[in-house]
Write a structure and sequence with these properties.
Blueprint: E1 5-6, E2 8-15, E3 20-27, E4 37-40, E5 44-51, H1 56-65, H2 70-79, E6 87-93, E7 98-102, E8 111-115, E9 118-122, H3 129-140, H4 146-159, E10 169-176, E11 187-193, H5 199-214, E12 223-224, H6 227-240, H7 245-251, E13 263-264, H8 266-276
Antiparallel strand pairs: 1-5, 2-3, 2-9, 3-10, 4-5, 5-6, 6-7, 8-9, 10-11, 12-13
Length: about 280
């Protein structure tokens, strides 16, 4: 069976201070997030594309887990693959070192650029500006959380040209040890737009929704539930048919933003006011 042709642009990256690794990708290809991105916290992240070899994902992570560097893993995977001239690969390891591969038979324009904590790559692109923009945007936004930083990279790269065949799907994957749902998962963000006219904008939209539901506001920003605010909260919950904040938040998938009844996350309060208006 022939490998899928994943003509796309992607960025593989990490935030060593936050201990997060991730991949963002866009392509004129159905459900690109099901093939290209792979990541494991404190191990590394991988993008496999062009005439993609999906085994590069799990096999590459296994090699990184053994202690091989990003460049050593690229060398190992491609040297053992007879189809390497049609592959494209980007890797960032646990130390933030990066490496990439663009096979000589990948369709033009194809190429990659690496730097500290990132590898940017693409094939069947309008031109090299797409990959260059992935790199410069990543470097210019170090103050952002990794997920937001990667989204900015995708949007800027698309504006710089993108996949010359157009757009169809996009994906954002970020992992952090115990950083996911309820602290019981390593998957901080795993969002996919499988088929859309503007997949990056749709990915932005669901990313904002994801942050609203599962993000965290600093506890110093929470509002004490007392006096008029307590009365407002109780009245709004009663209007909606609930006798507790926990009960309503559970239905609205906001339970990760609720911690007792002494104070309330401003995001939760805003959602409650919208729901009960």
């Amino acid at each position: 069976m022939a490998e899928p042709v994943v003509a796309t642009f992607s960025i593989v990256a990490c935030d060593l201070e936050a201990k997060q690794w991730g991949v963002a990708v866009q392509s004129k290809f159905l459900a690109v997030g099901s093939i290209v991105p792979w990541a494991e916290p404190e191990v590394g992240a991988i993008a496999t594309q062009a005439y993609a070899n999906p085994s590069y994902g799990p096999n590459g992570l296994a090699l990184l887990r053994e202690g091989l560097s990003a460049s050593e893993v690229v060398e190992r995977l491609t040297s053992e693959d007879e189809g390497r001239d049609q592959r494209q690969l980007g890797i960032v390891d646990a130390q933030g070192a990066s490496a990439a591969w663009t096979g000589r038979h990948c369709s033009d324009w194809a190429g990659h650029q690496t730097g500290s904590c990132y590898a940017a790559q693409g094939n069947i692109l309008v031109g090299e500006e797409t990959v260059a923009t992935l790199a410069t945007t990543f470097e210019a936004n170090a103050q952002m959380p990794l997920a937001q930083r990667l989204l900015e990279c995708l949007a800027a790269a698309q504006a710089a040209g993108g996949d010359r065949r157009g757009q169809q799907s996009a994906s954002l994957l970020v992992v952090q040890k115990d950083g996911g749902y309820a602290g019981l998962s390593d998957v901080l963000v795993d969002l996919r737009v499988d088929d859309h006219e503007q997949p990056i904008e749709e990915l932005r939209r669901i990313s904002r929704l994801h942050h609203r539901l599962f993000g965290q506001s600093p506890h110093e920003d929470w509002l004490p539930l007392q006096g008029e605010l307590r009365a407002e909260l109780d009245e709004r919950l009663s209007r909606l048919g609930y006798d507790s904040l926990d009960a309503w938040a559970g239905v609205e998938n906001l339970e990760e933003r609720v911690d007792g009844e002494d104070a309330i996350d401003p995001v939760v309060l805003e959602a409650l006011r919208e729901a009960s208006s």
